[in-house]
Amino acid sequence: MITIYQADSQHIPLIQDMAKIIWPIAFGEILSSEQLAYMMDMMYSKGSLQEQMEKKAHKFLIASKGKEPLGFASYELHYLGLPQLKIHKLYILPTAQGRGIGKEILTYLETEGKKTGMKNMVLNVNKYNSKAFQFYEKQGFTKIKDEVIPIGNGYVMDDFTLKKKI
């Protein structure tokens, strides 16, 4: 049985360990090794994760089976002051993919969104990550726009923004 629980700052090393495994596989063919390293530091350094949790009010989740971590997610309620839940991160370890864990996390988030009065879930997905894009489409998300987001050091995130009514 899969358990999904709220994570906090004590879980930062676990989130970092999972990201170090997931990101090179998910983005290794999409991003240069330099951009990958830059983004890992920008998003997953201890200071960055603490800021996301403590100052930006991003809520983190861990999915596990027993004591075995399987993946993680982060989200924000009332994104841009609107009744929408923004999924900032949703990553499943490669060895755990295809077992319905991502779908369970999305169900958890949809339930959380409904309980808190959110009308939509939104997220960004890299335009060239077709596996993730197809997964989200199967879960009822639709593309609402293309977005190029400068992230510093001359790099951008070249994404689709997806939305699902809840």
From TrEMBL:
One protein family per Pfam: Acetyltransf_1
Domain N-acetyltransferase: 2-166
UniProt keyword terms in alphabetical order: Acyltransferase, Transferase
Name this polypeptide is given: GNAT family N-acetyltransferase
Species annotation: Cyclobacterium plantarum
Coiled-coil spans in chain: none
PANTHER family: AMINOALKYLPHOSPHONATE N-ACETYLTRANSFERASE-RELATED-RELATED
Source organism phylogeny: Bacteria, Pseudomonadati, Bacteroidota, Cytophagia, Cytophagales
